[in-house]
From TrEMBL:
UniProt-recorded name of the protein: Sporulation sigma-E factor processing peptidase (SpoIIGA)
Keyword Membrane recorded: yes
Organism this protein belongs to: Candidatus Carbonibacillus altaicus
Transmembrane domains' residue ranges: 6-29, 38-61, 67-84, 91-110, 137-157
Lineage: Bacteria, Bacillati, Bacillota, Bacilli, Bacillales
InterPro entries xref list: SpoIIGA
Amino acid sequence: MGEVIYLDLVFLNDFLTSLFILWMTAFLWRRRITVGRLLLGSLLGSAGTFGLIVPFLYGLYTPLGKISFLLLLLAVTFFPRTLSEWVYGGAYLLLANALYVGLTFFLTLFTERLPDVFPEQVTTGLVAFVSPSLWTFLWAFLVMVVLSRLVFPVLVWRFRKESFYVRFTLFWEGAEKTFTGYVDTGNTLNVGGRADGVALIRLEALLDMLPEDLTRAVRLFYAGKDKLTETFVTPRSWEKWGRRLRLIPYRAIGKEGILFALRFDLVTIRSPSDRVARRLTGRTVAIVLDDFGLGEGVDALIPPDWVQEGKGASTLSGYHIST
């Protein structure tokens, strides 16, 4: 008896599977992607179906063909421009594919054969599906719904160790500058018990934004001056900037002390869940001399209340209110 293949169902099944895996890749990679590119990549992903009937496409099922097809799929869907984007994109695509296939295999692992109903088919799974069939399509759709609604939000927000980065802009006396910040739920600093959280930023990132007397004041303050007014270069600078100054006690792993903080005119920040940038007025930013150990280009730790829904990840050396 010859094998019957329902190409329309196989194509639809592969299309939905590709759609979900590519969406999952973009989600894990935090890569913005248009609906058009997502659909185009899914159509390309389902094109492997024709390798079953078109002789010159048999090469898609060889190791070299699979790798080449993966790179083509990555290029069409995400359009990576640098080597690092190719590496990260390929890794996330393989991870998304492995998670999908792994869970599907796990859920279809323990079903017995049905020799009386389908003597030529050997099936394994909790439900005995004959592949390819309408049941295959329904099973793929069910797995997609379960993964997208239940499994991956938990994996990403509870077990993910990568940073959650946002771009934000500080405004000071007519000057403005944009930075990259890391949303840190371990940061519980605030001013005077108020709900507004305090961000931390490296002094080096503010050198071309703040006046010279202020940057020198920060260095002198952390050098251990006994009197706060002595950290300012001139009495005039104290009179001008003193009203913006805040001193914030903190406790971190292995150290504690007082942070030199300033109240900025305006902060604009936009997280991936925000459609438009949020405008925060009168927010306090503590200035520190040390690095946060989060890699080059990360200048600040952002409190969770600065971004919508307060999502983020906790660092191991977060700053906390000293009690």
